[in-house]
Amino acid sequence: MAARTSPTERQKRLGAEVRKLRNASGMSAEAAAALLGVDRGKISHIESGVRAISPERLRTLACNCACDDERYVAALADMATPAKRGWWERYRGTLPAGLLDIAELEAYARRIRSAHSVHIPGILQTTDHALAVFRVVIPRLPEGEIALRLAHRMERQRLLASDDAPEYAVVIHEAALRMQFGGRAVARAQLEHLLTVSERPSITVLVLPFEAGAFPGAGQTINYLEGPVPQLDTVQIDNSHGPDFLHTEAQLAKYRAHLDWMERIALPVEESRDFVHTIARSL
Hints:
This protein is an alpha/beta fold. The protein is built from 13 helices and six strands. It has helices at residues 9-25, 29-36, 40-47, 55-64, 70-80, 97-108, 127-134, 143-156, 158-161, 174-178, 184-197, 249-265, 269-282; strands at residues 111-116, 167-173, 203-208, 222-226, 234-237, 244-246.
């Protein structure tokens, strides 16, 4: 298979898991190359996500690395199976790769947990709210770029309205609910939209009021995307420079604990809805 010039986050993750399998068994890259019938350089490229590995070769490697976790190996084989072109690929070459990586990871997630301290989740934003957010990016985005980002964001939202939508559970801090991006009317419409989508059975919205006090973390957006097995979970963190993707065992445990804490001190579902409704009426 031809080398990739820019592997996606999902492709890089598969390569990282292949490296983890090999290292855990003590197998050298040279031995892996001999086992799979490829040269040493291709092993390095597979482990960096630059080259693909077939499901058959992946299973051969896992077997010879003495990995007996059948669900994990099956999940890796699924990742190695060539997938249909995702809708986000239409934006490749026109939007930052990190935005496309988020959409791809969401599409394959079994469950998504999220926490937001300042912003309404992008996947739940109205068009006007998203426009207000994109228009304060530094450096300023040209209108054509804003239009592309808006189209991509709205298309992401189709996932939660689909028949096989993943479970989506989000904790939104009171500060985010009171932000008036775009002005009072836009903010009110955003909160009303939030109430509407929260009625879907697959979506859970919890509010963390000011009165709940302290919670862990630096206040950044956290998206925890659960994979087919826990080892393949991914944490995505928003930053001004773009998204960061984390997946070491320590990082996954840390952010699960963050979300557990925030969910524990947040208002229950119905009280959260009443809280959002009260803020919307005050605008």
